[in-house]
Amino acid sequence: MTDAYWNKKVETMSRAELEKYQLKLLKNQVKYCYENSKVYRNKLKNIGITPDDIKKLDDSQKIPFTYKNDLRDNYPFGMVTVPLGELVELHASSGTTGNPVVGAYTTNDMDVWAELMARSLYTTGVRKEDVMHNAYGYGLFTGGLGFHYGAQKIGTTILPISGGMTQRQIKLMQDLGSTVLCCTPSYAIYLAETMIKGGISPENDLKLKIGHFGAEPWSERIRERIEKELAIEAFDIYGLTELCGPGVSVECTEHNGLHIWEDHFLIETIDPKTGEILSAGEEGELVFTTLTKTGLPILRFRTRDISVIQNEPCECGRTHSRMMRIRGRSDDMMIIRGVNVFPSQIEYAIMGLSELAAQYQIILERPDALDVFTIKAELTEKSVNSSQHELETLKRRIKQKVNNITGLSPIIELVKPGALPRTAGKAKRVFDMRLGKI
Ligand SMILES: [Zn+2]
Prior knowledge:
32% helix; binds zinc ion
């Protein structure tokens, strides 16, 4: 099935061949950084390393980590390795705290990005004949344009609708016959909710078949829900502004992890506390090194994303390692009464209940010495009229499910349908009011 691959040779090359190729690229990238970046030259000089010390792939471990703060401290162009005139596009993260992170692309970087996004979309079945409804935000955020460039490379018809104006989105999806939907998972759920409310059956009234969801962590439960409600096959896609935007990794039709395009990125997993290297199969923080970037290359970037890497062969025939679904960010990890909890675990616990809508909030307070942990869960139109007894039973069930996963006993508050805010961008789920009270 050569038709299954965008670039069969690269996607299915043997691990040995792939690693040999990676070593060649790593040597080049480190040398390039050393010669063209004051920041990296200093980092390497400080620990007495030169590019000649990179002799095998494992030698990447000698290189110091790069943190988001390195990019912020060198804002805007301190880590750019080409004359500014060589840059052809700039992107930036939202930067809610401090300086934003700038993504700087040369012509070559743009070609690579489009290629990786085309490969990612193609892997999930997107073809020339499709109509792609791109509801990711267009602009500084890499989501909108990343998908745009990839689909353009395939020759797919693109509807660059961006975010917002949900009713209009649904009308155009219907009228123009969209077959592919790209947006955040929380917006997909909101779209489904709005369609169902408006009497539109995604299965009968729309042509959607594939969905690409990313930019925020989501669970298997959310996948089940989106697939059922929108009658599509849902794919997870991953990327970061620091690396190139979306297109770093994507799920294949096996839905057993996201293939990392290792001909452009070197992946490592580390213990987020000690920085120690972990083996494949062990859960830890993902660390990426760009292998082919020319505008703003990054060596050993600490993503804060927690996952597991698998490098056994995948049923789809691709040899590139897979990262399992992101379990959370080490930044997002909550410590409640001394227990490590990720929002995704709470999501997993509550999403399987048909009485609840897909919206929830986690509220953490510390009125005196002990943490108070509350989950606000939204009822559906159907379950809101349940008897008091039924609602009490539901609360007990939620509490039990969360307890089974985390060992904690939260307070459960049920709220009316529509009571929790919807958003077209990333949903805010955790409200930690304990800060400053420690
Ligand atoms: Zn696969």
